[in-house]
Amino acid sequence: MPQYTAPVRDTRFILSEVIGLDRYANLPGFENAGAELVDAVLDEGGRFVAEVLFPLNHSGDQQGCTRHADGSVTTPDGFKEAYAKFREGGWSTLSAPEAFGGQGLPHVVSTAFEEYMISANMAFAMYPGLTHGAAAAILAKGSDEQKATYLPKMVSGEWGGTMNLTEPQCGTDLGLIRTRAEPQADGSYRISGTKIFISSGEHDLTDNIIHLVLAKTPDAPESTKGISLFVVPKFLVNADGSLGERNAVACGSIEHKMGIHANSTCVMNYDGATGWMVGEENKGLAAMFIMMNVARLGVGLQGLGIGEVAYQNAVQYAGDRRQGRALTGPKEPNEKADPLFVHPDVRRMLMEAKALTEGLRALCLWGALQVDLSHKAQTEEEREAADDLISLLTPVIKGFGTDAGYRIATDAQQVYGGHGYIAEWGMEQYVRDARIAMIYEGTNGVQAMDLVGRKLAQKGGRAVQALFALVDAETAAAKDHVRMGDFAQRLEKANGELTAATMWFMANGMQNPEHVGAGAYSYMNLMGLVSVGLMWLRMGLAAARALEAGGGDAKFYEAKLVTARFYGERLLPDAGALRRKIEGGAESIMALEPEMFRAA
Amino acid sequence: MPQYTAPVRDTRFILSEVIGLDRYANLPGFENAGAELVDAVLDEGGRFVAEVLFPLNHSGDQQGCTRHADGSVTTPDGFKEAYAKFREGGWSTLSAPEAFGGQGLPHVVSTAFEEYMISANMAFAMYPGLTHGAAAAILAKGSDEQKATYLPKMVSGEWGGTMNLTEPQCGTDLGLIRTRAEPQADGSYRISGTKIFISSGEHDLTDNIIHLVLAKTPDAPESTKGISLFVVPKFLVNADGSLGERNAVACGSIEHKMGIHANSTCVMNYDGATGWMVGEENKGLAAMFIMMNVARLGVGLQGLGIGEVAYQNAVQYAGDRRQGRALTGPKEPNEKADPLFVHPDVRRMLMEAKALTEGLRALCLWGALQVDLSHKAQTEEEREAADDLISLLTPVIKGFGTDAGYRIATDAQQVYGGHGYIAEWGMEQYVRDARIAMIYEGTNGVQAMDLVGRKLAQKGGRAVQALFALVDAETAAAKDHVRMGDFAQRLEKANGELTAATMWFMANGMQNPEHVGAGAYSYMNLMGLVSVGLMWLRMGLAAARALEAGGGDAKFYEAKLVTARFYGERLLPDAGALRRKIEGGAESIMALEPEMFRAA
Asked: Where does the Acetyl-CoA dehydrogenase-like C-terminal domain lie (chains A, B) (predicted)?
């Protein structure tokens, strides 16, 4: 059976030595996030998820959720009790606003904890994860009354939340939704329609579930310009905050999925359910994107979280399992065989996993910091710069991060050989669970299009120019560094490929936007490679500083430098290939008529 | 629910226009394999698998195999009847020797059929697939009596066969096996031990199951030099060929796996079972490799087969599902949205799948032809040349082919968006089924080591030199070709990267063999890229010839030229990156001590 230990040492390294949290102590929320408190969150959070959530991961997968004849859904054995402990521990409140009962900690701190929760039990983590997304939309767009009604209990975890976008005929193309919202005399709406793939749509963990639902008012324009957002609680809420009557929304069935079996993925039927508009009429898409951007960063974190736990287990197995001998002669001649660790190709998989998980951890936390800074930095300029960066990088974190998570999980399973394919070892679950993250909250292809079609050009390309400048400046400064100089040069080169690819889009996209679409996915990967590369430059430099300063833990820091080198030698070379693919353009991709794809 | 149509048109193109089967009509077995007969095999075989095997694929996955209290195993509903039809149709006998009731057709023809069978139902195809591997070992190494006793009924499919290698403590490192074989006075052996992961180990499809078992005789040397191969029938066979008493071999349990649920993967307990040695004592590994090489090519074919059926369904869905609009404006303005086909990133996934499946089909069939030629070519020189090539390419076809199959299945699932994750759509099964092919019959990492550690150096590197020369000659000849010249130049460049990587291994491997091990996987991918590239050069040239000759079917041939171009522009660029990774060497991969991988 798999094991999990929260990588607290690594998180702490990133927060204190790479990001330097204490530099932001003057900002609201950060003043409380001193090293001592952060350490406590990481230590206790890591212990909580390992002790309470992780033991339910495999059993939850095997048992799954159950829908009963009355439409109620029960989660796997132990989930209810674990959720109660999650609430009691205050784990749902970390970065929620103090005005609604939250602890007001920086997003960067709660993100660290969320990674651990995902590693321990991704399906479980989705219940509070969705609540978090739904609460974000109410916080940003809801009326004061809506905030007061819903947020305190969503923050405390007493109530859950969901996001209802997809319908049978549409996922990505939300202009096609058919769910209707009929205005009532009292200002409420009657919501009717069917939503599918609703994560945590119905379950037994919370007293109420607050559904956020995209629907169309009568005479709303076709297209996404005619979508509004509604809040539709499972139980109506009385004026005194107590639960009132059951609303006309019900789970019609739960899906049989490849993975995340312990999260209830529901078909939700709205039969004239009572709801209230959140934000302005026909501006639902903008409100939805508030949730969506929170969710996308959370999904990117799923790539990291699953990658981390799969990696940890592969490392364990590579040490335990003996098979064959080192190429340079027996390493442990008294044993019948050497551990898998001696084999370079096993190491290759472990090093890739290490380089990607640690790099993604830094990127996710740095991204979370940008979210904080976009709200809390002292000047408008700083806030905008942070917002630019995180807007640009959200699809990269989601797309590159979840592709990496799947790849790491697949490689970790591979380290186990045949045992990796057997359910009881637990590794195949990670592959199945990791797979969904590439699909939901916008497929990774949709992320790539968001990146090249929307984010690149925003505000005259300011964000991407800022990223280039950042990488240019930091690589230039490190070029002659004794330990990281070679890496800096490799990263500079990769950044050059990214810059060139961007120029190629600019030169060719006007003539034919399909040139951009055809290269979008490679471009997303290229930006991911460079962004994680920037994190490795920073981590390598921080490690070198620490080694120079002495003070112990030398192996930890040496490992960082080796892993940075590995990233430069073994992963950055893809940058050139990705650029050349992008420059291949759209012609060979778009030339075939659909029937020419079909088998004859 | 998925659909499947055997790609008969494409197979025929490869056999007649790319490989040119009629050029070999003077060889034994090929004289019967005229165009008419081959067409009949492809047409009828394609129809048989689509009508009989494919409808059982999803239900077989959902139901799985069942082990009963008495140790018997039943396959999913319908499998027994389908297997009877498989036997009746003579599908098990295609390329088996006529002396044992086979049709004596070339391996290249049966390989074409086997691809279809895998696409239609991989778990089903494994039952005859394993029989085929076991029969190959008896044919090559068995005594005349063993051949006469077992082969006719294995060829006819009346009896099944298995390969028993893996034990709980060893898979790759067969020197560690513990199963014992005690010699008896009558020349037989009593076999005792436990084997795991035995595909088709016990089932209800055949009257008898012929297990080929690796075991150690008393006083056998430690290591793989002390392994012998034994034939252990489930039911002993009387002198008159009728079934005698039940042998002391039984299925202890069946594994719960990620996929191929409809194939029974068994723990097999040998409790003093009666067996007979096949071939010489302590030479079991060589005999095992006879089976293994057959099996590895068959597993490579699984990558292709799953890739093909997943691709076909993604194409179908991309035409049926409407979502969003083309970047260049609505393609079907009367509909509410355009089909997925208009989106370049969807096309990218479909084109990659098309380029890889069609390229792998050519490679697998060309490889199968080398197997035929290694036995049947007229001169010793030709036979050796064919044997060199297929020995070299077997790990490439297995490793590169199955990685590609998993990638294609994953991408095909991705085209379906959220629906791809739901079991009833059938796409997630392809991912789960494809996954095992990267693991069994030697993980793909083991294939890579077989390639660089054994195959490269064999006979002074003759095989790899021959491959380079082939690609050099064919790219040089096509360099100025009006349609394929650009591709030929790209392939020449990729072949240059492969050559340079090979030189790098030679220059650095002596100093430290880990430099070779560290680059093995990239090298396998690089050789796969070049080998499939060679196939695309040939297919492109054949298509250009056909277009020049007129004669219709122009769209089919134009699609080949477009897909070749895509392969050159979008897949071959990886060659440079792979070479640079190889040249990164072992240092950053091997530097960390095991404890430096562990989370702190």
From this structure: 471-592
Of B438, B569, B576, the CB nearest to A576: B576
Can you give the three-state secondary structure of A128-147, one letter per residue?
HHHHHHHHHHHHHHCCHHHH
What region does B442 belong to: left with phi over 0, alpha with psi -120 to 50, or beta? left
Average pLDDT over residues B247-264: 98
Of B336, B345, B513, the CB nearest to A449: B345
Structural domain that includes position B555? 443-591
Separation of alpha carbons B586 and B22, rounded Å = 48
> In chain A, what residues touch B452 (CB-CB under 8 Å)?
none
Between the alpha carbon of residue B54 and those of residues A599, B5, B120, B173, B309, the distances in Å are 16, 10, 4, 36, 10
Residues 94-153, chain B, touching A (beta carbon < 8 A): none
pLDDT, tens only, A397-413: 999 999 999 999 999 99
Strands A208-215 and A159-164: parallel
Cα B10 from Cα B364, distance rounded (Å): 13
Q: What is the pLDDT of residues A307-362, one digit of tens each?
A: 999 999 999 999 999 999 999 999 999 999 999 999 999 999 999 999 999 999 99
Take residue A418 and report the two structure tokens written for it. Answer: 């045949």
Range in B293-297, B373-377, B421-425 the model is least confident about: B293-297
Residue B600 has pLDDT above 60, yes or no: no
| Dist. CA B466–CA A58, nearest whole Å | 50
Asked if B350's CB is within 8 angstroms of A597's CB, the reply is yes
Bridge-based pairing of strands B189-199 and B208-215 is unpaired
Asked, for residue B554, whether it belongs to a domain, the answer is yes
> In chain A, positions 61-100, which contact chain B (CB-CB < 8 Å)?
none
The number of folded domains in chain B is: 1
* pLDDT of A222: 87
* Rounded CA separation B449/B468 (Å): 20
A356 CB within 8 Å of a chain B CB? no
Alpha helices in B416-553 (DSSP H): 427-437, 444-450, 458-478, 485-509, 513-549
CA-closest candidate to residue A532, choices A354, A301, A311, A361: A361
Shortest Cα distance, chain B CAs vs residue A239, angstroms: 39
- How many Å lie between the alpha carbon of A181 and the closest alpha carbon of chain B? 21
Structure tokens at A206: 């919370």
SS3 content of chain A, % helix, strand, coil (to 5): 60, 10, 25
Chain A residue with minimum CA distance to B436: A421
Q: Which pLDDT tens digit goes with each residue over A234-268?
A: 999 999 999 999 999 999 999 999 999 999 999 99
The answer as to whether B546 is a domain residue is: yes
Is the residue at A558 inside a domain?
yes
A395 inside domain: no
